[in-house]
Design a protein that fits this description.
Largest sheet: 9 strands, mixed
Shape: globular
Helix content: 40-55%
Order of helices and strands: HHEHEHEEHHEEHHEEHHE
Number of helices: 10
Strand content: 15-25%
Radius of gyration: 19 Å
């Protein structure tokens, strides 16, 4: 089953809107994830791997044929895991419904652990990182992918309504204990917990259009859909907290869509970081 079939299968089932949004986000980001995996220079042969915050299991799906011993997707959301099991029930794949701060496995189980876009929600949680350190083997590889909103560039400037919406989203994550400026803080945090051989690799996604050429229309469409899907997952909670009015939420999103469809020159640069280290 290809990534497209993975997504279409998720859509064809009676899953919740949140699961569908997550499946679509996973589908859109799968090529980027594969690029990161291939550039690790790491052999998964015979390894036991964990994916903390697996969502609907796109990472276990992409790794299932890399001759690993076992990959375990861990997530707190039961609906996500129900979909993950349906979409990928491979014999070397298992799923655990658990909080990453309390993983029900023995010490030193995993050869490597993926933590993708989780620290932006947890912040620099000592409990979370200590649990990662407890469950990974000595010499095991920790692979972190996360965001750094300070590194995002927009030209021309974003509409004020969109700026407000993105600012509210950042404030919302802070209220939930998260941090959208987390990547630059993680290396020192990892070092303070005894991790070593820390390597930092920026990955920049650029969408542009202008007189000399442009990204494909599909790439610009995806730039919007990724933001839309991310915001839709938390929209009800943001509105219930009265952080922003519904009309302002939708105006910010609609104006961002219009911004992407400007006839003038346009550039969006979003930089994420892949951070690896060893126990």
């Amino acid at each position: 089953m290809s990534c497209g079939q993975f997504f279409n299968t998720a859509l064809s089932q009676d899953f919740s809107p949140d699961v569908r949004y997550m499946a679509y986000q996973s589908y859109l980001t799968a090529p980027h994830l594969l690029h990161q995996i291939d550039n690790l220079g790491y052999s998964f042969y015979g390894k036991t791997v964990a994916d903390i915050g697996t969502g609907v299991g796109i990472l276990p799906y992409l790794l299932k044929e890399r001759n690993l011993s076992k990959i375990i997707g861990i997530d707190l959301d039961k609906d996500f895991l129900k979909a993950a099991r349906y979409l990928n029930n491979n014999e070397n794949t298992a799923y655990i419904n658990a909080d990453g701060r309390n993983i029900p496995v023995k010490d030193s189980v995993f050869d490597s652990i993926f933590v993708r876009y989780v620290f932006q929600h947890t912040g620099m949680s000592d409990i979370f990182l200590s649990e990662i350190k407890r469950t990974i083997k000595d010499g095991g590889l920790l692979i972190i992918a996360d965001i750094e909103d300070d590194m995002n560039i927009f030209y021309p400037d974003l509409p004020e309504s969109s700026k407000k919406l993105f600012r509210i989203y950042s404030e919302y994550q802070k209220l939930k204990g998260g941090d959208r400026l987390i990547s630059k803080k993680l290396p020192a945090f990892l070092l303070s917990h005894g991790f070593k051989d820390i390597k930092i690799r920026p990955y920049t996604l650029v969408f542009f259009k202008g007189s000399e050429g442009s990204s494909s229309p599909e790439a610009l469409k995806n730039a919007f859909l990724l933001v839309q899907n991310e915001l839709e997952l938390v929209k009800n909670d943001i509105l219930s907290r009265k952080l922003i009015a519904s009309i302002e939420f939708h105006k910010g999103l609609n104006d961002y869509f219009k911004f992407l469809n400007l006839k003038d020159d346009l550039l969006i640069s979003k930089t994420e970081f892949l951070i690896t280290c060893k126990k």
